[in-house]
Design a protein that fits this description.
Structural class: mainly alpha
Helix content: 55-70%
Order of helices and strands: HHHHHHH
Number of helices: 7
Number of strands: 0
Shape: globular
Radius of gyration: 19 Å
Strand content: under 5%
């Protein structure tokens, strides 16, 4: 396979992974089947790892298999390029989601661009819901306009929204 064709397959795989991740996040991770692992991601983390991290292990396996098959199994260059695309999406996901949005590693990155701010805010709106039902914004590289996400949260009858940080009404009444 030529370099331009391989690169096109690599980029296409990265872009298709966004759709695949959206479907898995919305219909598997937020389902009764997948919530057992994913719920830990919607709660305060108490250590370095959470049960949701098992998804990263599971999702790395196809990438490893494709790269191995392309390099050692005689499957062809297409498998190596696709496996690399899946792996690169995983790197983007980790850097954006785990490091920048959730601060799992220290960094000094501040979202400044309109796109970057929208993606971060959309993911925070996703985490405004404590339950598996009623969440919005399941993608990682694309997010609908923030106003549309806010309207969807307000209209949802299923969403169990988190209380605002900084105290409850009871605490406020104690101070008064």
């Amino acid at each position: 396979m030529s370099w331009p064709a391989g690169l096109a397959l690599f980029v296409s795989t990265v872009l298709l992974m966004e759709g695949f991740a959206y479907v898995l996040h919305r219909f598997v991770m937020h389902s009764r089947l997948g919530w057992n692992w994913h719920e830990s991601h919607h709660r305060a983390r108490t250590g370095w790892f959470e049960r949701n991290d098992l998804y990263a292990v599971v999702f790395a396996l196809p990438s490893i298999l494709l790269i191995w098959g392309g390099l050692n199994g005689g499957w062809g260059d297409w498998a190596t390029w696709m496996g690399a695309g899946v792996a690169f999406y995983g790197v983007i996901y980790f850097g954006f989601h785990d490091v920048i949005v959730h601060g799992r590693l220290p960094h000094r990155i501040v979202p400044r661009s309109t796109y970057f701010k929208r993606i971060v805010q959309a993911h925070k709106l996703h985490h405004a819901v404590e339950s598996r039902d009623g969440a919005v914004s399941f993608g990682f590289l694309y997010a609908p306009p923030v106003e549309r996400l806010k309207q969807a949260l307000q209209a949802s009858r299923e969403a169990q929204l988190r209380r605002a940080r900084g105290g409850s009404t009871a605490r406020h009444e104690e101070r008064a």
